[in-house]
Amino acid sequence: MSEKKKLSMKALILMIFTSVFGFTNITRSYYLMGYSSIPWFLLAAVTFFLPFAFMIAEFGSAFKDAKGGIYSWMERSSGTKYAFIVTFMWFASYVIWQVNVGTGIWVVLSNAIFGVDKTQTWSILGLDSVKTLGILGIIWIIFVTFVSTKGMDKIQKITSVGGTAVASINVFLFVGGILILILNKGQILEPLSAKALVEAPNPAYLGGLQVLSFIVYAIFAYGGIEVIGGLVDQTENAEKNFPRGIKIAAIVIAVGYSLGILIFGTFTNWTFTYSEFQTETITLGNVSYVGMNQMGYQLGLAFGMAESAARTIGGLVSRFMGISMFLALTGAFFTLTYSPLKQLIGGTPKKLWPKSLVVQKNGMYINAMKVQAAIIIVIIAIVSFGGDSAEQFFEILVSMTNVSMTLPYFFIAYSFLSFKKDDTIEKPFVKFKTLTSAKISVFVVCTVVGFANVFTVIEPAISKGDYLTSIMSVAGPLFFTVLALILYSRAEKK
Questions:
Q1: What start and end residues bound the annotated signal peptide (predicted)?
Q2: N or C: which end of the chain has fewer CB within 10 A?
Q3: DSSP assigned state of 424
């Protein structure tokens, strides 16, 4: 009897790595905290990534035949209402992601065309650059939603090309960084010391509150692990290989991030790159491109090129990254316009939804997609017309994305306690052998995620008096939680 080929441990580690590891997490972290971000990545791996991944593995193996993903896990453990609200929050994180990327993709396109971020000089009808990006973001959302509702076949090609290109950027960073180090005879441009590992070069990240708010970046960098929940039963010798695979993947990813930040420091002197070298205002939207431009520039100098030639190389590297990221984000955008929505509506009871929202055409929930687009457009308008500067605009977007993407992890982890207490649920894969070990892990994960989000929300208001960023960070999850409660109570009354 032939069995379906199962995943080897090596294949499992590779799948976890590609689902979780993100190149921009390295460049953003280096900009925010330099080498001192490394200990936080290691701490987040131990206190969040490892225990949470094992929880997901237990959930996934117990409900391997369930179609509703995280909703199915929590419904059986914590009840329909809890499961619906948390799944709605999880869906909301992808809506906020679309707000972030819908406006940020223009920075990517600018780098692809010009080799630098010129969006700060763009203007539509005399409006400033932030409002212009907002309008372009709204046009992008309308375009993507319109195309998606027709059903799609060719998007996967864009995604695969973009995925390959982004993978090549990771390789380029590591190979290029090591090459610069060799050509510069081991000279590191950002001095490495014990002090550098605990004190950020960024003056905005010297206070305790700012540093603690950085934990949410580290947790976000390990996000996406929930997708491996369904792989337990597909793994060869799962009882032994799955926990070992998760441990190895966690080590590889944590070391990958730490090594990436160290390598970035070999060719990036923090003060020179972010306050002297750059020609545009640094934002969290363009910092990755500024970093890669700097890498190309330093590579040119290391090969003995003239200043002007080295700057040309920098522009080319920035363009290459812009094209790669544009392809990858475009592919991801089309997928995430309908995929989370499909799981939300398709995986939850139909009675919870107004009839118009479950209407399908070309395999898509067309009315629900239009409502989703309208919500995204309203959020983009509020953020782009409510802020002052490009810097604040991208800070709001990144903060909103970090909070909305990581907050559901708190509630998924909390639901794990009910799951462990329920002896009627068959658990083919068990990592936490006792209820006490499960309680400790849930407490650690919930504490880390909870505090990280609290610090992220309050930090801008307390340290800079930036109440807009604080309010918008929490407004997204709050709005969608209220919306979920309205939908649920409406269904209950019926």
A1: none
A2: N
A3: T
Residue 2: pLDDT band (50, 70, 90) is very low
SS3 content of the chain, % helix, strand, coil (to 5): 80, 0, 20
Helices (H), 351-434: 366-386, 390-421
Give first-to-last CA distance, the chain, whole Å: 50
Structure tokens at 180: 């610069």
Distance of alpha carbon 102 from alpha carbon 376, whole angstroms: 9
**Residue 115 in contact with residue 315, Cβ under 8 Å?**
yes
pLDDT band at 1 (very low <50, low <70, confident <90, very high): very low
Alpha carbons 317 and 172: distance in angstroms, whole number: 10
Residue type, 53: A
Q: What is the 3-state secondary structure (H, E, C) of 137-167?
A: HHHHHHHHHHHHHCCCCCHHHHHHHHHHHHH
Angstrom CA distances, 378 to 334, 384, 389, stand at 19, 10, 19
Structure tokens at 114: 């010009």
Strand partners, 364: 361
Give 436: exposed, middle or buried? Use CB within 10 Å, 0-12, 13-18, 19+: exposed
Using alpha carbons, list the distances in angstroms from residue 149 to 137, 152, 221, 359, 448.
Answer: 18, 8, 31, 12, 39
Tokens 């930090």: give the residue. 459
Backbone angles phi, psi at 235, to 5 degrees: -95, 135
Whether the pTM exceeds 0.85: the reply is no
Q: To 5 degrees, how large is the angle CA 281–CA 284–CA 289?
A: 75
Q: What's the CA dihedral at 220, 226, 227, 228 to 10 degrees?
A: 120
Coil, helix or strand at residue 364: strand
Q: Residue 386: which residues within 8 A CB-CB, separation 6 or more?
A: 468, 472
Phi and psi at residue 7, to the nearest 5°: -75, 130
284's CB contacts (< 8 A; 6+ apart) are 28, 31, 394, 395, 397, 398
CA dist., res. 311 & res. 296, Å (int)? 7
Chain segment 245-278, per-residue pLDDT in tens: 888 888 888 889 999 999 999 988 888 888 775 5
